[in-house]
Design goal:
The protein has one domain: OB fold (Dihydrolipoamide Acetyltransferase, E2P). Helices cover 7% and strands 50% of the residues. It has 1 helix and 7 strands.
Length: 138
């Protein structure tokens, strides 16, 4: 059996403050949008900018850290996997949402912070890892 790969990395700015809620079992989940912009010049020399919006979902300890440390406008690195959700709304219309399930988050606009790197712990007993590096891991 072959393995697949579902991994995404983005750097952008929060479009609003994170919103945290709890599942019926008490597990924290935090959501927030991140805007990622790119710019290019046409052959005529005209400058164009395009912005993509990504819906981010963080679970567990990472959810709590995102709620605690992130604010609208903050620049972040998010690493995770893409998840597509499908459902029908109250009017019976089919809806689709593509989200990034965050597994790693680095705050990029506050270089003074010592612990600016957070990862989702795979089990509740594991500690959240913190990196003191200011450079990107790639």
């Amino acid at each position: 059996m072959s393995r697949g790969l579902n991994k995404i990395q983005i750097i952008g700015n929060l479009g609003r403050d994170p919103e945290m809620r709890y599942t019926p079992s008490g597990r924290p989940v935090t959501t927030f949008p991140v805007a990622v912009s790119r710019s290019w010049n046409t052959p005529d020399g005209e400058r164009h900018t395009e912005t993509e919006w990504f819906n981010i979902v963080a679970w567990g300890n990472l959810a709590e850290l995102c709620k605690q440390h992130l604010l609208k406008g903050r620049r972040v690195y998010i690493e995770g996997r893409l998840k597509t959700r499908r459902w029908e709304d109250k009017e019976g219309v089919s809806r689709v949402s593509v989200e990034i399930i965050a597994e790693d988050m680095i705050m990029l606009d506050d270089r003074r912070a010592e612990n600016n790197h957070f990862q989702e712990a795979s089990t509740p007993e594991e500690e959240i890892s913190a990196s003191e590096e200011d450079e990107f891991p790639f």
